[in-house]
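so the lab meeting is tmrw and i was supposed to have these ready like two days ago... anyway. pasting both below. for each one the top line is the aa sequence and the line under it is the structure tokens. i havent really looked at them closely yet so no promises
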Amino acid sequence: MPSKADVKAWKAQLVVQAEQQILKLTDSDQFKKYLNTLAKFHRYSARNIDLIYAQNPQATQVAGFKQWQKAFNRTVYRGAKAIRIAAPIIKKLTPAEQKHLDTTDERAIVGYRYLPVFDVAQTSGEPVLSAKDFVKENLADHQNVTSLYNAFKDYLNQQTDLKVSEVPLATLNGAKGYFQPSTNEIVIGGDEPDNALNLKTLYHEYAHSQLHGLKSAFKDRPRAYQETQAEAVAYVAMQNIGVDTSNYSLGYVATWAKDKAVIHSALSEIQQVSNKVIELSDGLTKQLGLQEAPKEPEHDLKKLSAQDLNKSYQGLQQKIKQATDSQQKSELKTQLNYVHQEISNRTQKQLQDFVRQNPKIKQPVQDEVKQRQL
């Protein structure tokens, strides 16, 4: 049983490890990995995003051991190494404690404990859907991104104090858009032919309005710092709808500040605005009908012959062995689970049909089964 000192040192090491990982984010590829983590876990606290990233940058969805079983019907692989996240310890306050803390709140956070969770790639079972599974395919290829851009622009014009307008790109001196704090106005190059770039630019300028407007606590950040923050929010928002804009977004991420305190402050700021943008986008895609239930692959499996089904199973097993990317391996395991379930269902049906067709065959009674097991 570890001592209290050992536990305290272990907890401190988790945080130190997270900080060390974050300090490496001056590299663009590393920063991209962090932003991918942020897009996947946008509802987690900044502290827990740091901890998840430090322990497993490839993690996509995490839950506790029992939660995987009860809520998702999935099982954690034996020997899987847990990811630790911080959970608040909330205590009901006595009147004396309320007076001492100068608060009227009945409860307060008095500390944190570190809980074990596991990534979906460390589990097997029924498929787990994410927000991207409900967004139509090829979002960036047709009119869907343009629809989302127009809906987001209309929302900002009608539901906020921001004004969004469009001008020809030729008047922007090489920029794609800008935010003007003095008038609280976002201006976008309306004739940009790339739908995804147009939407990303609107996300970028919206991030500026939230982080660097006249009333923002962060308005005096250095220019390179502001641009990196805004581009990070735009990247996260586009990742959330399944559009990879890394070719646009991460060219100047190397300008990221190296000071630890600034990094933590900046990451927290990015997360706050990213959360807001993601929630807005999810709501708008739903209103626009861009969210739909994904096709169930098991329906197609029912059309396969037994021979083709077995070939599919063997092929997926081989692909899983060869896969090096954890996300790809997780997706392949999900497909394998579908095929396995279909084979199992067919086998059970064949057994039931056989029993019905051969009622005279004696079935072993329970006592006989027990005796054979002894």
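ok protien two:
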Amino acid sequence: MITKSLRGLAAAALAVLPLLSAAPAQAAVALPLADAIQELPLAVESREGYQRTSFKHWVDEDKDSCNTRMEVLIAESRVEPTIEGACKVTAGEWYSYYDGVTLTAPGGLDIDHMVPLAEAWDSGASGWTAARREAYANDLGSERSLVAVTARSNRSKSDQDPSTWLPPLADARCTYATDWVSTKLRWGLSVDEAEADALAVLAEGCGQETVEYEPAV
């Protein structure tokens, strides 16, 4: 198992799966939220051909018996989590920032893909290799990519973008917009007009929020 600060190590192998040889790491980027939104490519979205099974997820990439879900639960627990067997998280303390709920039992949590798999498909992942989609679905290299939240809030969000869904906790929305934009920029995903407009409106009320991301190789 790994801690939150070491997620990048587990993600390193996933990030290079689509490549025949390792590529140099790209430099991290930091931009004000409003400027970062302007960097997102604008494109019409299409869900044609999407299947959730196109994204192999919750794998044990580093072969330590902890799959991606368990890694995120371990990393995001505010106390030392209880782990049984090879790597089954059975207790801890998690704060679901979408709705401001604290949980101590992992059964009430989903691991949310910040940009849902279907939305990623719509926004460019349909043209990726299966290996790159697997890397995306298990991205431990950025703390923004995957987040433990209440199952209720995650299922309310489903595959929606910020033009149709925002966290019910108003104080979470600037963080959410920042995490969303960071993930899209990290993976080179596009936005449609409604999504871009919604993000721009959010940015107006988000002060000095900064988007930080490292492009996925």
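from a quick look at the 2nd one: Helices lie at 7-15, 33-39, 68-76, 117-122, 130-137, 151-157, 173-187, 193-204. The two ends are 24 Å apart (CA to CA). will dig more after coffe
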